[in-house]
Amino acid sequence: MEFQNTREFARQLDANDKLAKYRDEFIFPHVNGKQVIYFTGNSLGLQPKRTKAYVDEVMDDWGKLAVEGHFYADKPWWDYHERFAAPLSKVVGALPSEVTVMNTLTVNLHLMMVTFYQPTQKRFKIICEEKAFPSDQYMIKSQVKFHGYDPEDAIVEIKRRPGEHNIRHEDVINTINEVGDELALVLMGGVNYYTGQVFDIKAITKAGQDAGAYVGWDLAHGAGNIHLELHEWDVDFAAWCSYKYMNSGPGNASGAFVHERHHNDMDLPRFAGWWGHNKERRFLMEPQFDPIRGANGWQVSCLPVLSLAPYLASVEMFDEVGMPALIQKRDLITSYLEYVLHEIDKEVNGNFEVITPSEPKERASQISVYLHGEGRSLFDYLMENGVITDWREPNVIRLAPVPLYCSFEDMYEFGQILKAGIQSHK
């Protein structure tokens, strides 16, 4: 498609957008009495309007039924989480038995590492990417120390080549092969939070397992954003937060995946709790732990239903739309945003540098751009003029054109505000 940087062209794209109606399903903040252009769905998604009804339902049941809500609510709390299995499995490309919802992201990754990081004297190393999200770095280091190893010896970071912003796929594979029979675990982010680079999950998983290691993925920026086939790609485990692209609310419950080939392996270590115990026998209060055969068998505590309610509202919306339609619009609107950025760069004689890969298969709903020569004052101008975006030092802005609620006219209007902001500082 040959793009044009005009309002009329952007409005025509919106008129042809099959997902345009979902924009009205969300609540937008306002700045100066005007609805914002929201680019931070990679940090916290907007609130779906239907969310309140789901939360109110739980509150009403709690008030009317108290403890009996576990069994006699319209959506009984006892099995509330089971409603996620079918729709969420479609989002991440899994069998329903392979997904569950529980805890928060880093907690779930720790729980997965209890099972899938079992170092030995020979095989003890973990591969991760350089400059992963800090929480992952802290988690991996703490796990390594817990097992008695020195992070300097046990953690292998795949680095970017000098002068490059993204990690080369061949460098990931080569590092896995080089570590070889010392490798215990590959644990990476499916989408790099800073650059928006999407990694080849299928190929990296195969390479890691061919080397004799387990392979897991942090999909904080992947779930609800990229095409995933976790079952077919043979991923051992994964976890993701629900409050970014999946719009479940701040700090909300996490999702987790465990491949079905691990479900019946009772020799795998895990931290046990009663909610992971055989559902039909849970209230017998038996002394011996008998885990559920499925991802639910990794649950520990009873689930926070009030937290799950907003997530269920969003998951059901994803089920209505389907990931193929989301990805189709994602690719188009992200490409249009990149085009607008380049056009504004030319108009202001600027020096923008997009550090997100240009190939659609290597990026998702994110454009990270260095605004060389510009400072924090430009970010402040954008925020004051109704563009909610994310600033990362030294002068990078991350822009996430989420397909469920961002419009093509948003992309055009952002370009005009960006242009005005740069010109006001000259």
Automatic annotation (TrEMBL):
The keyword Chaperone does not apply. It is an enzyme of class 3 (hydrolase). Transmembrane segments: none annotated. It comes from the Bacteria. Keywords: Hydrolase, Pyridine nucleotide biosynthesis, Pyridoxal phosphate. Its EC number is 3.7.1.3. Its cofactor is pyridoxal 5'-phosphate. GO terms for biological process: anthranilate metabolic process; L-kynurenine catabolic process; L-tryptophan catabolic process to kynurenine; NAD+ biosynthetic process; quinolinate biosynthetic process. It catalyses: L-kynurenine + H2O = anthranilate + L-alanine + H(+); 3-hydroxy-L-kynurenine + H2O = 3-hydroxyanthranilate + L-alanine + H(+). InterPro entries: Kynureninase (IPR010111), PyrdxlP-dep_Trfase (IPR015424), PyrdxlP-dep_Trfase_major (IPR015421), PyrdxlP-dep_Trfase_small (IPR015422). One of its GO terms (molecular function) is pyridoxal phosphate binding. NCBIfam families: kynureninase. Belongs to the kynureninase family. Homodimer. Catalyzes the cleavage of L-kynurenine (L-Kyn) and L-3-hydroxykynurenine (L-3OHKyn) into anthranilic acid (AA) and 3-hydroxyanthranilic acid (3-OHAA), respectively. This is Kynureninase. The gene is kynU.
